[in-house]
Design goal:
Chain lengths: 173, 294
């Protein structure tokens, strides 16, 4: 069956069996290996992608069902090749990952949350990532990473106060 | 974990979907797929054909009609959770939806799918039975309907027939002004399958006396059950009368035993959660004098 998908802003087509999940098509047909295959039956959240901006499990969706949606994978978050999104960078800074297997799913879940609010409570963050299993970090640093990213995004577009901007110059003398 | 091969069809109309279903006993309906796809992956289900009803326009949408809210079968659970009509008019449904799966499964999972799946511990069937909702069906002979109480007949078993498809669920709106809801469930982790769940809705008059009450338990028996606590009507829902009514209503409750919880545990927890749900519903109604406010 031919399926036309829109992935990370680009139109992609593939000839696939109906039983092939969106996860497998992303990884095998389009080599978007950032979407991780974990349990393959909807429990772990490693395969999370955004469908029209909302996190869903790509192992619980067949590729033939996914036409007409705007699909975003972890590869679609960075502003430019070799760069990191604010959330990705926050995960690095706060040690929000160890083995990294759950990280793409965690970051996409966090991304969807922070599209809706930049002032999430701890409970909001825990709920947003509740469908994603992490076996390394104990979740503490992941929650910290999302809080840190929210802090940064809150101030991202506000002009810096003059005092703050001048401070490094004073220190440099 | 890869499903066995199947054919995939996406009909344009509900009538076409019903005709396809009626003509092939190995055909199954898929909508959100949040329960079916794991079953396919584990090969517990091997349908020859999947009929995708998710984009059928007849099954979408939430509307108020004749004292009821009609929730289209393919309404996403996440969409229902945010919906202002459901929040205002079917507060019990709004209250339980955050307990259905996780945000990513609610983004795909549908209200109708949860009803069709008939998991005894699922929250949406519990609300349907407790509030006396009606399941609206599309059949080869035209539209039909059935009370939720008659629709669920066992674990993952419903009375739905060959060639039939759930089109919507009709949740009655309570006419009273002061309505409150309470919901509690016990599971190993939040959003796992509930061992026991209890949902209550009460309506109070201006003096705080009970005008109407609905109470249901899920996860205890082989399907969600409504308990008769109508003896509470006219009372002030004080702790003693709630406890007596729950005791009387849940005395002959049939409970399942499995490796997660024994029947004795389920029966005991059900009694406690019923009391808590009724008390929470009473306090919720007392604190929110406006209709359906939460």
């Amino acid at each position: 069956m031919k399926v036309d998908l829109r992935i990370n802003g680009a139109n992609r087509s593939a000839e696939v069996e109906p039983r092939k999940t969106l996860l497998d098509v992303l990884r095998e047909n389009f080599l978007l290996n950032g979407t991780h295959a974990g349990c393959e039956h909807g429990v772990c959240g490693a395969c999370t992608v955004l469908v029209d901006g909302e996190p869903v499990r790509s192992c619980l969706m067949f590729a033939v069902q996914a036409d007409g949606y705007e699909i975003t994978t972890i590869e679609g978050l960075a502003p430019a090749p070799g760069e990191l999104s604010v959330i990705q960078d926050a995960f690095c800074e706060t040690h929000g990952l160890q083995c990294g297997y759950c990280t793409p799913g965690m970051i996409l879940a966090a991304h969807a949350l922070l599209q809706n609010t930049l002032t999430p409570t701890r409970e909001d963050i825990a709920e947003a990532i509740s469908g994603n299993i992490c076996r390394c970090t104990g979740y503490g640093q992941i929650i910290e990473a999302v809080q840190f990213a929210a802090d940064r995004l809150r101030v991202a577009n506000t002009p810096r106060p003059a005092a703050l901007a001048e401070k490094p110059v004073v220190e440099a003398k | 974990m890869k499903p066995a091969p199947f054919d995939y069809v996406r009909p344009e109309t509900l009538a076409e979907a019903c005709a396809l279903l009626a003509g092939d006993e190995d055909a199954r309906v898929i909508a959100g797929g949040q329960t079916l796809v794991p079953m396919l992956a584990m090969r517990l289900a091997r349908p020859a054909k999947l009929i995708d009803i998710l984009r059928l326009p007849e099954l979408a949408g939430i509307r108020e009609e004749d004292g009821a809210v009609i929730v289209g079968a393919t309404t996403r659970q996440a969409q229902a959770e945010r919906d202002p009509v459901i929040r205002a008019s079917v507060p019990m449904l709004a209250r339980v939806l955050p307990w259905v799966g996780h945000p990513p499964t609610r983004n795909r999972g549908t209200v109708g799918g949860s009803i069709a799946n008939a998991d005894p511990s699922a929250e949406i069937p519990l609300v349907a039975v407790t509030l006396g909702a009606e399941i609206l069906l599309a059949t080869p002979d035209g539209p039909a309907s059935m009370p939720a109480d008659d629709f669920f007949i066992g674990p993952m078993l419903t009375t739905i027939g060959m060639g039939e498809c759930i089109s919507a669920i009709r949740f009655p709106i309570w006419p009273h002004k002061r309505i409150g809801t309470g919901f509690f469930e016990i599971s190993a982790r939040k959003s796992d399958f509930a061992f026991v769940a209890a949902a209550a809705q009460v309506a109070l008059d201006q003096e705080g006396r009970c005008l109407d009450v609905a109470l249901g338990v899920g996860g205890v028996g082989d399907r969600p059950l409504r308990l008769d606590v109508s003896s509470l009507n006219g009372s002030r829902l004080d702790a003693a009368s709630i406890s007596d009514a729950v005791k009387a209503a849940s005395g002959d409750l049939e409970a399942m035993s499995d490796l997660h919880a024994s029947a004795a545990y389920r029966r005991r927890v059900a009694g406690v959660l019923c009391i808590r749900a009724l008390e929470a519903a009473r306090d919720n109604a007392a604190a929110n004098p406006k209709k359906g406010a939460r």
